[in-house]
Amino acid sequence: MKGKLKGALIAAPVIAALAGGGAAIAGATGGGDDNGSDKAITGSALDRASAVALQQTGGGRVTDSEIRDEEGYYEIEVRRNDGSQVDVHLDRNLKVLDATADGGSDGGDRSSNR
Question: Residue of 20, 26, 43, 108 with fewest CB within 10 Å of its CB?
Answer without folding.
Answer: 43
